[in-house]
Design goal:
single chain; 366 residues; alpha+beta; Phosphorylase Kinase, domain 1; Aminoglycoside 3'-phosphotransferase, Chain: A, domain 2; 6-stranded antiparallel sheet; two-stranded antiparallel sheet; 10 strands
């Protein structure tokens, strides 16, 4: 069972809450394992809290008297190791750190499932505000600063896509050409497997994606979950990102697929009221770039020429992929594998995303 130890408060760590019963583990066993296996082992037994924002892998704060660590593990009820491979996530960040200084320092990886019932890894906590649905209360930028923050975050994505993956030893995480084709086929299969009675079929969208998929443009390291709430900001200059979190879906692939996936989460101030209910990041603020401006900035920085019609594929794919993620999470809730009330209405988001995909497809005229 998860428990509180020590006296150091956790109220100053945004998003850290009491551990849900279904996600608890034996804290003493973890503390003992870390003392025996970490290169720079922490002393004592930590106070533990759970971050409430994640919807896939579970994330915990381990608060020791002199340092904060982060523990990551798969969600309860997960079966496919390939979807929640802790060793892979740990290794990607370990290899990336020397050439991309925006990943946390890794502490230890545990493949012994007897410790907490699953594999897990521990890393140092990057301290700084994280933009979630709203900006942290201590961050109150002007519209000009909001724009600068937005541009700096987008440039972080450009920099990630510019990493020399072969030199960094990351080649093992790619499967060669055909990434776009594999993504369309793979996410289509996942949606059909996770569909429940209360969501649409997405068959027209999946058929359109298959018929209109372009060849891979190039191969780079893609994050696959690039959002503001995975960005850590500099405490002294909250327009400057210092960290990028949640690497569970990172792989080698097409950079425009990564951009399309990122923009699927981009809810603007001018979007319809129902869609705005599902906003998870502060992209509605005055000064934020629109989705079209984000795309144009990225393409210009990356030296890529792309027409509006060509872009439609990546935009639709990003929205479809987000719908599959929402539906997979809702499927777990629907079948009682999680009781997190935040997932109760994810099926509604799935329906809204299907409607938006169809609207873009009609506009694309093909």
């Amino acid at each position: 069972m998860s428990d509180s130890h020590g006296t150091r408060p956790t109220e100053d760590v945004s998003g850290a809450r009491q551990v849900r019963e279904e996600d608890s583990f034996d804290v003493t066993l973890v503390a003992t394992w870390l003392r025996e296996h970490a290169e720079n082992p922490p002393e004592g037994v930590p106070q533990v809290r759970q971050f409430s924002g994640g919807a896939s892998n579970l994330t915990y704060l381990l608060r020791y008297p002199d340092r904060d660590l982060i523990l990551r593990r798969p969600p309860a009820g997960s079966k496919a190791k390939s979807a929640h491979d802790m060793g892979r996530e740990y290794r990607i960040q370990s290899l990336l750190a020397p050439v991309f200084p925006y990943v946390p320092a890794m502490v230890a990886f545990c493949e012994d499932e007897s410790v907490i019932g699953s594999e897990f890894y521990v890393m140092e906590r990057l301290a700084g505000p994280i933009p979630r649905k709203e900006l942290p209360h201590e961050v109150d930028p002007s519209p000009e600063q909001v724009r600068l923050l937005c541009l700096n975050v987008l440039d972080l994505l450009v920099d990630l896509h510019s990493v020399d993956t072969e030199a960094a030893g990351l080649s093992e995480f790619g499967r060669g050409g055909g990434y776009v084709a594999r993504q369309v086929a793979g996410w289509s299969k996942r949606y059909r497997a996770a569909r429940t009675w209360n969501v649409g079929s997405f068959e027209k969208v999946m058929s359109w994606l298959e018929a209109n998929r372009p060849p891979d443009r190039r191969t780079c390291l893609v994050h696959n979950d690039f959002r503001f709430d995975n960005i850590v900001l500099d405490t002294d200059d909250p327009t400057r990102p210092i960290g990028l979190l949640d690497w569970e879906m990172a792989t080698l692939g097409d950079p425009l697929m990564d951009l399309g996936g990122a923009l699927a989460y981009w809810v603007e101030a001018g979007d319809d009221p129902l869609f705005r209910l599902f906003r998870r990041q502060p992209t509605h603020l005055e000064g934020m770039l629109t989705r079209a401006e984000v795309r144009d900035h990225y393409l210009k920085r990356s030296g890529i020429d792309l027409s509006e019609r060509e872009w439609a594929f990546y935009e639709v794919f990003g929205l479809f992929r987000l719908a599959v993620i929402c539906q997979q999470i809702y499927y777990r809730y629907h079948h009682g594998q999680t009781t997190n009330p935040a997932f109760r209405f994810f099926w509604v988001a799935c329906r809204l995303l299907e409607r938006r995909c169809k609207r873009i497809i009609r506009g694309a005229g093909r």
